[in-house]
Design goal:
CATH topology: Rossmann fold
Strand content: 25-35%
Number of helices: 5
Function: Catalyzes two steps in the biosynthesis of coenzyme A. In the first step cysteine is conjugated to 4'-phosphopantothenate to form 4-phosphopantothenoylcysteine, in the latter compound is decarboxylated to form 4'-phosphopantotheine.
Structural class: alpha/beta
GO cellular component, one term: phosphopantothenoylcysteine decarboxylase complex
Shape: globular
Radius of gyration: 18 Å
Family: In the N-terminal section; belongs to the HFCD (homo-oligomeric flavin containing Cys decarboxylase) superfamily. In the C-terminal section; belongs to the PPC synthetase family.
Number of strands: 14
Strand order of the largest sheet: 5-4-1-6-9-10-12-13
CATH class: Alpha Beta
Number of domains: 1
Cofactor: Mg(2+); FMN
Pathway: Cofactor biosynthesis; coenzyme A biosynthesis; CoA from (R)-pantothenate: step 2/5; Cofactor biosynthesis; coenzyme A biosynthesis; CoA from (R)-pantothenate: step 3/5
Bound molecules: ligand PMT
Distance between the termini: 24 Å
CATH superfamily: CoaB-like
């Protein structure tokens, strides 16, 4: 077989949701299934990359040839990523990381005593921005999950987090985004963009990875 367009490249990526503990039996999370990130891991391995997948809790099987590290919370995901970032040439942040976590997880199960319950939250670290700010940063690719003004917010995240590329998806539409089998990504990089149309997540993943490979060889 011919060497793939990512042959010899090292890729670190995140996928799935994070879980932020409220107490020993409860957590806050989101609807990410991991399908998009696992499709990226699978396609990248097929294209020749050496892939490490840092995964939140999902029910998917690990793609063949991929090294998988399981985490639960955003803080654990940050630690797992930063411990490995220097050893990788490409980073893709596809995980739906919780922006906030409860200030402290209760030691015991929260009891049903009050009529209302207020939970104080604190900002989580931004994994993608931390990777992009690293002195030996890899080629850094983010995702943007938006429900309106997709291009505006994607370009804002590309510039603010100093990314090499961002893959934006409108997660308000049925048949794409969270938990769907298909997606419709638009890629943005400084000075350009590419609309990937609507297709299954494997096809979207391959197109994103080939665009990254093109940029790396330039
Ligand atoms: O998992 P699936 O069901 O297949 O769904 C796929 C998906 C919709 C989750 C995926 O396509 C997607 O959009 N992933 C990013 C989800 C997200 O959290 O987007 P955001 O716009 O809130 O975050 C922007 C970027 O910052 C993302 O790359 C995210 O990984 C990163 N981030 C966000 C917060 C944080 N604390 N740390 C981060 O690294």
């Amino acid at each position: 077989a011919e060497p793939g367009p990512l042959a010899g490249k090292t890729l670190l990526l995140t996928a799935g949701p994070t879980r932020e503990a409220l107490d020993p039996v409860r957590y806050l999370s989101n609807h990410s299934s991991g399908k998009m990130g696992y499709a990226l891991a699978e396609q990248a391995a097929r294209l020749g990359a050496d892939v490490t997948l840092v995964s939140g809790p999902v029910t998917l099987a690990t793609p063949a040839g991929v090294t998988r590290i399981d985490v639960q919370s955003a803080q654990q995901m940050l630690e797992a990523v930063m411990a490995r970032v220097e050893a990788h040439e490409i980073f893709i942040g596809c995980a739906a990381v919780a922006d906030y976590r409860p200030v402290a997880a209760a030691t015991d199960k929260i009891k049903k005593s009050q009529e209302t319950l207020t939970i104080e939250m604190v900002r989580n670290p931004d994994i993608l921005a931390t990777v992009a700010g690293h002195s030996k940063r890899p080629f850094t690719v983010g995702f943007a999950a938006e429900t309106r003004d997709v291009e505006h917010y994607a370009l804002d995240k590309l510039a603010r987090k100093k990314l090499d590329m961002i893959a934006a998806n409108d997660v308000s539409k049925p048949g794409q985004g969270f938990n769907a089998d298909s997606n419709a990504l638009t890629l943005y990089w400084p000075g350009g963009s590419k609309d990937l149309g609507h297709s299954d997540k494997a096809t979207q993943a391959e197109a994103l990875l080939l665009t990254i490979a093109e940029k790396l060889t330039k």
